[in-house]
What does this fold into?
Amino acid sequence: MHDRDLLFDLSAAAGPVGYEDGVREVVREALEPAVDRIETDAMGNVVGTVDGESDREVVVAAHMDEIGFMVSRIDDEGFLKLDALGGWNAQILRAQPVTVHTDDGEVAGVIGAEPAHTRDEDDVEDIDDLAVDLGLDGDDAADAVSVGDVVTLDTDPRVLGDCVTGKALDDRAGVYAMLAAARVADPDATVHFCATVQEEVGLRGARAVATSDEFDPDLVIALDGTLERSVPGVEEADRITTLGDGVGIKRKDASVVPSPAVVDWLTELAEEEGLEHQREVAWNIGTDTGALQNAGGAVLSGALSVPVRYHHSPVETAHREDLDATVELLATALARISELLD
It folds into this structure.
């Protein structure tokens, strides 16, 4: 990998939907040395720009928000009830450590788990069935935490064989690939590297970028984690991508059909450079390309995907070689923009 420490810092940083401050600091620190200027807009999107010599303009985007929770109620016994920020499978959340982010600092908590010998088979159906235990009584919990505080899972990233695993690799893996490519790419076009917010609740940050008067792109490319389900019990036809088979070049998802000319160009570049790649067709996810493609008017669009296993969980998993292939294909594309646009 180009920079494992950067990926781990991105994964570990807190940045739930709408409250991306923690991860934004990591992004700004990593991106600033690689660009000519860097700004944060009113929504919280970070945009680092490399000024090119040609009159071509490219927007590259990856979303830095993660799914999380917001405290909706503190009961008399000190337990916290939660409202989801993004899409969770509630059944995986039992027995998870969490951090509550308050105005006065971080407060540790756990999502409780029913013992096996008293558990009903279907005791967790949605977020309403869960509660956070702070280890405090009602009055002390109410003093420590407020309704509206955000909550994230407390999971440290680590190496797992040929892979890395941790929380929020959807889409910190894509953010990592964008940042790593920004460090090595040598584009002649002007490139705006955008770490976007609020993707998990409707591509909102990317929509703001797309409609901004600051940008008039000839090409947009988004990077995101895509579904990888090559695990026992999942039919091969439902697996979408496979860990270790390279960067995904998106043909379709629920939010976008990328421009065929861009899809073909990215595929040709991967083949010429000997980069492992795979075709991605997904029916049940979306990505920032869906907003960037047409929110500000029609523009050529593409999407690169990092296969991520165990999506929206504390143990999202990506293959290190897939990450490298994503970085290298993006850097190659930025260096050869004229082949597509001229």
Residues 169-184 form the longest helix (16 residues). The chain has a mean pLDDT of 94. The first strand starts at residue 37 and ends at 40.
